[in-house]
Amino acid sequence: xxxxxxxxxxxxxxxxxxxxxxxxxxxxxxxxxxxxxxxxxxxxxxxxxxxxxxxxxxxxxxxxxxxxxxxxxxxxxxxxxxxxxxxxxxxxxxxxxxxxxxxxxxxxxxxxxxxxxxxxxxxxxxxxxxxxxxxxxxxxxxxxxxxxxxxxxxxxxxxxxxxxxxxxxxxxxxxxxxxxxxxxxxxxxxxxxxxxxxxxxxxxxxxxxxxxxxxxxxxxxxxxxxxxxxxxx
Amino acid sequence: xxxxxxxxxxxxxxxxxxxxxxxxxxxxxxxxxxxxxxxxxxxxxxxxxxxxxxxxxxxxxxxxxxxxxxxxxxxxxxxxxxxxxxxxxxxxxxxxxxxxxxxxxxxxxxxxxxxxxxxxxxxxxxxxxxxxxxxxxxxxxxxxxxxxxxxxxxxxxxxxxxxxxxxxxxxxxxxxxxxxxxxxxxxxxxxxxxxxxxxxxxxxxxxxxxxxxxxxxxxxxxxxxxxxxxxxxxxxxxxxxxxxxxxxx
Lengths: 233, 249
Known about the structure:
The structure holds 2 protein chains of 2 kinds. By secondary structure, chain A is α/β, with parallel strands linked by helices. Helix content of chain A is 37%, strand content 15%. Chain A has a single domain (2-70, 138-232), classed as P-loop containing nucleotide triphosphate hydrolases (Rossmann fold). Chain B has one domain (36-248): MetI-like (MetI-like fold), CATH 1.10.3720. The longest helix of chain B is centred in the last third of the chain and has 39 residues, at 157-195.
């Protein structure tokens, strides 16, 4: 896969099971985002293939970007309902679904507000709701909380993990934060700086419930050390 | 809001007083620059003629401006449709803009005859380019992740245009319209110089009659018209964008 005429990912063989929460870690420019874009079919690989089984509809994939990227001229409800609108779902149905998913991210009291009137964390939650409104089976997140302050980020991490558990979808989460990867994921993959080689592929040994308690758990520290070692090594 | 209206009034009043003094004291010849009081008197004396002229120029400018807005946005949409189209035609849009209007105006008379249609054409020619240029740049600078989002959910190019690209370009469209509004008034007056009618004719006739006070009165009204159009666009822009664009908050 090329990006500005540079080979970003040369050879990679990565399988992800349904229902998995996979974190993809690596230094900047290692091809994490490119990988995600290829899985979402936003970029095509020059060679090789991306297979999603069973051969599903493309709308079963959702993408969350580095920033919220909402439409500033639409209120929260209309932003969250956008994917369904583009897919041709009638207004009453799509608004009902959008309201339900906004309820899940705790934004039911902000339906009429516009992105300019929201905090960064709230905007990101709208973005998350927009991704979830189609009930995707595969959720791709590209460093989604990187621009937020740490406290907001902690809350969103917990929320994302809960949403994943409730919905049983597959999540691929790209991040450069070791602590976020270890806290969120069941499995973490560390990419090498160049060419997309996999340096570590590890199933994390952490309890299924991830809450604020886990932040101080020595097992989390142990996993973080392992991941960090793979990145540095 | 009150302060933004009040602040520019202070230099206006001061300059008026200074001009009045300079003319009355004989420092400036009244046949070169009239005293503000003389301009005011000309306005009152010829108010029927001036108001009629103002109305004619307003119609000409507004019609030309609306045509510019509609065609300008349409042309920008066409230009944005493919890079090839853009490469082939955009240079002509730029070339078109560099042709001096004052030199083209006689041609417009030949094509459209004497009267309001030439004035409208002149206003249109003068004001269409900023709408094209700003709208095009707005459409082309759509946030890439949002384009990806629309692609992900299978939106057609037409849906993407109307639900994403055009609304996202609105702030820049308004920037173009603001520039274009002032140019439309200039274009209309140039058209009137040659095709007759409106404030342009008043200026022309008053000049030959050595009525410098009336020339000033007509020029002042033309500026007020330009200002009013500009204010109208600002109001529209504010009403449209106030909820979402940072520059309107």
